[in-house]
Design a protein that fits this description.
binds guanine; six-stranded mixed beta sheet; 427 residues; binds zinc ion; alpha/beta
């Protein structure tokens, strides 16, 4: 069945340029081959209306239709860890995160958090996420079940951490790998779900476990890989001590076969140009997590370095190191980081580019270009309805916008979950 929505419309050209129709039309339908709901047409109402005159139109005056946001790195079990103060990454993990994650051994507890998490993503306009679960396989089942119930495109995986981890979250080398393979076979490609092989980070896995993870990554090229790298100086020193044969912390992952397209590493802050080239040459991507990096005092992602060497990146909340589910908060933090790191206005500072990094750019980095993160014909029909007059100040400010940049910036700076009137999955 075709559906048509008339409202303002935001989408992206192939080169990342933001495209905007103040009076737009979005037509969705069912793809005959896949049975998925997809965008059939998107453009100005004036140009498209004659061809779709037979369709009833849902008219949403004053609203903006935009691609659902894509969060490239988040931890669903850390929903309740947000805002836990610590000196930095390692004490934060030990004092708050590991004890909290141990609770996900209980499938009922996991199911409750998973349901809240999925609702909270949607309330904030995030329709696709790559998320960590915990080391307990049942934590993965719990989230996939909730995502499937909502029809979401979502990727998650069981955390591998067989050393330097306390009782309650530590898994066993072989068992963790067997559980991973069983979960891949159970969930990869079911409806819109995808699996990610998930070593927590190099310091909490033995070489044997990383090697096994790399073997699975080679055996199942369609699944994702997710981990953390080069977030914090203490973490880096620890990783270098544990893997002295590798050229760098990042190179450790390459040495175990864990860098390839669909491999996503969070943070990627403290890199040299050889690391950047390794990201580029292996098709590995970075999940830039600015609210987390600011909260934990980890540092600033070097946008100029990434653009100079040419590896891909996109935005991520990294909840619960990150402080907000809202992509508007993340985009604003990314703007601050771009300001801090560069004196001249680089690409990362432009509002359209910030928005792209959290939609079409993030989707492309995940290997999902043309599937999610955009509203071009053929894309899956996940979109959000924004109310640019959701608060008195937003209403004043957006009404005065004289360009698309000004409109997008007003929403990035002033927006939060109130701006998202509704998230539509498979509309
Ligand atoms: N490095 C290893 N585990 C984690 C985690 O849960 N959060 C963050 N931010 N970094 C990590
Ligand atoms: Zn993380």
């Amino acid at each position: 069945m075709q559906k048509a929505y008339r409202a303002s419309l935001l989408r992206f050209a192939d080169d990342g340029t933001a495209l905007y129709e103040s009076d737009g039309l979005l037509v969705t339908g069912t793809d005959a081959a896949t049975g998925r709901r997809v965008v059939e047409a998107a453009g100005s109402w004036q140009s498209l209306a004659p061809a779709y005159a037979h369709l009833p139109v849902e008219h949403l005056p004053g609203r903006i239709l935009a691609p659902g946001f894509v969060d490239m790195h988040i931890h669903y079990p850390q929903t309740d860890v947000i805002g836990s103060p610590a000196d930095g990454l390692l004490p934060w993990l030990e004092n708050y995160t590991f004890p909290h994650e141990s609770r996900f051994a209980d499938p009922d507890y996991a199911a409750g958090v998973a349901a809240f998490f999925a609702d909270e993503l949607l309330r904030n306009g995030v329709t696709t996420a790559l998320t960590f679960a915990t080391s307990h396989p049942q934590s993965v089942d719990a989230l996939f079940a909730e995502a499937r119930r909502r029809g979401m495109r979502l990727i998650t995986g069981k955390v591998l951490q067989d050393r330097n981890s306390p009782d309650g979250v530590r898994d066993r080398t072989e068992q963790g790998l067997q559980d991973t393979e069983a979960l891949i076979r159970k969930w990869q490609g079911v409806d819109r779900l995808g699996y990610a092989i998930t070593p927590r980070f190099a310091p909490t896995s033995t070489p044997a476990q990383l090697r096994g993870a790399g073997e699975l990554a080679a055996q199942y090229p369609e699944v994702w890989i997710q981990s953390h790298v080069a977030e914090n100086l203490g973490e880096i020193a620890w990783a270098r001590e544990l893997f002295p044969e590798s050229r760098s912390y990042l190179a450790t992952y390459d040495d175990f076969g864990l860098m390839r397209p669909r491999a996503v590493y969070a943070h990627c802050i403290h890199f040299d140009d050889d690391d950047r080239a390794l990201m580029r040459d292996t098709g590995t991507v970075a999940a830039v997590s600015p609210t987390s990096n600011l909260f934990l005092g980890s540092g600033f992602f070097d946008y100029a370095g990434a653009d100079r060497v040419g590896f891909r990146y996109g935005l991520a909340s990294d909840v619960g190191g990150g402080t907000s589910f809202s992509p508007f908060r993340t985009m604003l933090a990314a703007y601050y980081v771009g300001r801090e790191g560069q004196t001249k206005a680089g690409l990362s500072l432009a509002p359209g580019h910030l928005w792209w990094q959290h939609t079409a750019g993030a989707a492309a980095a995940l290997g999902l270009a043309g599937a999610v993160g955009n509203l071009q014909p053929g894309c899956e029909a996940d979109f959000i309805v924004l109310d640019p007059a959701a608060t008195p100040l937003l209403a004043r400010k957006t009404a005065q916008a004289e360009s698309l940049d000004e409109l997008l910036f007003a929403m990035i700076v002033l927006g939060d979950d109130r701006l998202v009137e509704r998230a539509v999955i498979a509309g």
